[in-house]
């Protein structure tokens, strides 16, 4: 193979090696390593199709949209027999060991501004368990309940890979077997300027960033994780994101709907709070299911109401999916014809000015980053299924340091959930109009992670603890 330098010269990117001769051997090796991992043909294609035309990949996206139907919850008119059949099928698949949990945790978490892997952020109201610990305990509980440990795949990125593994090792994998948890790092993409020139973060390094949560599909294939799943007889992948402590990592009903419909990709939809809520929306376009980003949804459609006065486009996408393994193999295979598209993000990226060799901190966005979104897999899937979920049971992410979707709102939503479960078990708990209890207490996922299980286990307790500030039911 030719030296990357020659390839970069041939592709009009010679500036990447401009400072090569000033570097020590270590710096030269690092630069060469990073350069070798870049697919220049892919970058060229993206610069041509996205940066130069500046369309962000979203051309005419909002034309001919219809809302995608979803299966309603029984309490909202759904067929409870159908939900029960789904639960049974899901439970059977779990007993058969067909299901893996999969969290994507490679993001940069800029909005939260936490200086460690986001999964290590403390989220629970009393014990301050981390996101990773909450998920680990839910996955452990599912394994105990169904008599088959659930393997857990964790996608990291270069930003947090080593720290994530060290964190799990330090905490003995929170009770999971070490070989039950598999880590792999996602792909990186280089940032470019408006002329398509790759940016240098330093003289010895390229400005690289993770390739988006949609990069998880090719990372599952490239890392060999998919082969491990195949060898273990796993064909059903329960996908969630690292920032949402309420998520039911393993949800038998959801798994069952997916399997009974022979679906390749199933999704949970949440009725949007209001027209302006910033979540993507499940739509149909030319007969295919798609998710339209909130920023691409014309205001006219976002606020349209149906005959019942409800938002017509109300199925919000909250990034909870079940993937069939075959679909991941197909989409992650590297075949450009059936790969997820890239989207453009215009961002500020500090870089070395090739003219002066000085580091430049831009005041305005100067760079284009390329990212894939996981929901773009939807149009490729056979028999997609969308089921409704309730916000209070599945979704309260930690995105921002303060305000909406913050540690505070998420801890409060966890408290409301514990209070609802307690009330269902007949426990008297003082709460305000929003359901927020007057005392801060916590239910460990190892005790129960659904209302039904809580009620059952609580009723079976011979000595029931009094619930006060700081009580932990475990
Ligand atoms: P977000 O879109 O919230 O991005 O990711 P983020 O990087 O975590 O946070 P901000 O935008 O910088 O504040 C949603 C989920 O997708 C994962 C994140 O780790 C999170 O679980 N993700 C995102 C990846 O795994 N890789 C990526 O390249 C991007």
Description:
With 474 residues, the chain is of the alpha/beta class. It has two domains: 18-403, Spore Coat Polysaccharide Biosynthesis Protein SpsA, Chain A (Alpha-Beta Complex); 406-474, no CATH class. Helices cover 30% and strands 18% of the residues. Strands 1, 2, 3, 4, 9, 10, 11, 12, 13 and 18 form a ten-stranded mixed beta sheet that branches. Strands 5-8 form a two-stranded antiparallel ribbon. Helix 4 (80-95) crosses helix 9 and helix 13 (407-424) crosses helix 14. The longest helix is centred in the last third of the chain and has 18 residues, at 407-424. It is globular and about 75 Å long. The N and C termini lie far apart (58 Å).
Write the layout of secondary structure elements.
Blueprint: H1 4-10, H2 25-36, H3 40-51, E1 65-67, H4 80-95, E2 99-104, H5 131-146, E3 152-156, H6 161-170, E4 181-185, E5 188-190, E6 200-202, E7 205-206, E8 208-210, H7 215-222, H8 225-231, E9 236-241, H9 252-260, E10 265-271, E11 280-285, E12 288-292, H10 299-302, E13 315-324, H11 325-331, E14 343-347, E15 351-352, E16 359-360, E17 367-371, E18 385-388, H12 391-394, H13 407-424, E19 442-443, H14 451-460, E20 472-473
Parallel strand pairs: 2-3, 2-9, 3-4, 10-18, 19-20
Antiparallel strand pairs: 1-11, 5-8, 6-7, 9-13, 10-13, 11-12, 11-13, 14-17, 15-16
Helix pairs in contact: 4-9, 13-14
The CATH class of the largest domain turns out to be Alpha Beta
Average pLDDT confidence is 95
Give the radius of gyration: 24 Å
Number of strand segments: 20
List the ligand species: uridine 5'-triphosphate
Strand residue content? 15-25%
Specify the CATH homologous superfamily of the largest domain. Spore Coat Polysaccharide Biosynthesis Protein SpsA, Chain A
Shape assignment? globular
Question: Percent helix among the residues?
Answer: 25-40%
Whole-number count of domains: 2
Total helices: the number is 14
